[in-house]
Amino acid sequence: MTDYQAGKKWDIGLQEAVSITLDSLRRLPAATLPVAEVSGLAAAEDLFAGVDCPSAASSLRDGYAMRSKDTKGASQARPARLRVAGASSAGDLNNKTLEPGLALKVLTGAPVPAGADAVVAVEHAREEDGYIVCSREVPGGCNLLSRGADVASGERVAARGEILTPGLTGLLAAAGIDQAPVIRLPRVAVVATGDEVVAPGHAIQPGQLYASNLITLCSWLRSFRMEAKTGVVKDRSAAIQEAVAALLPWADVLLTSGGAWKSERDLTVRVIEEMGCTFLFHRVRMGPGKAVAFGMMGQKAVFCLPGGPPSNEMAFLQIALPGLLYMAGRPPVPFQTRKVRLAATVAGDIAWTRFIHARMEQRDGKWWAVPQRMKSRLQSQARAEALIRIPEGAGTLAAGQAADVQLLRSPCV
Length: 413
Prior knowledge:
By secondary structure, the chain is of the alpha/beta class. About 20% of the residues lie in helices and about 35% in strands. It folds into four domains: about 5-30 and about 185-325, Molybdenum Cofactor Biosythetic Enzyme, Chain A, CATH 3.40.980.10; about 30-55 and about 150-185, Molybdopterin biosynthesis moea protein, domain 2, CATH 3.90.105.10; about 60-145, Molybdopterin biosynthesis moea protein, domain 3 (Molybdopterin biosynthesis moeA protein, domain 3, Beta Complex); about 335-405, MoeA, C-terminal, domain IV (Beta-clip, Beta Barrel), CATH 2.40.340.
């Protein structure tokens, strides 16, 4: 049963934790960026074409622009003969009108003159003595890209909230849009705490360890193009306060690593709460990752992640990362989920959602999830290609049974 203290929920289910997180966050303000920089971002408003593309009717092939009716009835026995009145290539400014009985030699992408309504491909006509000889009828519209065929001026090119893919950014450019308002990505402050934790690049003493969680989190953020600033501090209230106070004015989101449990040395949640953060939940029925806490400090989101590497990463991937994506206007689903067969039996927990590192293996054309059986938790985490998700109430899943897996790497299913 969930109990409450000062509005904070304790030991809640994963689905409820994600719902509380998303319900508490807001989309970030729009920023206008060059169109070459908006791929992967969400459009902040509807975007409309400012020009026609192409801006004039143009040829799809190397050949000859002509009036289609000048080839009516043409055949091998009675070919049409049209006088070549010049040539045009892509980028030429063509303001000529093609008179009956004439043809204009054109290269791919060249504008066709007014009056022309078709292009005969070069392989279907031959040129001799200043004329082309065409032995077939050429239908109207043949090999011709009409003005505005790709996009017409005033046409909506992208809808508000739509994710701008690389192909779509090219269409925006073709439509005359050189800058676009988008929902920017969150700026994230990452603070690692612990007397034993040392920033990479510094010497360590026996009993100390490098802040690998910090690097893993920043790498995940970078893989989603999010900017991060970091700090590594001792388990001292003043040090934690100082680091948070220095980074938070720049950041939209604060991630902390370590000090999220409930011993007397776990200070992070308590210190940040004293700084004005209203925590909405603390501890989630998931493993690894149980000790995660989430709250709001004004308009800033705060995720306090546990210090154990698998718990730290899992709490980030399952709760914090969906929230960050939501703030950026993107779907809060970081990874594709597929149902595949299990290569070995895995044990769940009736009361928890459990995640197990796995690699993907193809057998007889079908994909299987192979649970990691490595002694090292860091090695298992580092080599994981997918996460097997065992929901609350499921208990043990037998080998050969279908299960949901989140694909951490490029989709292979």
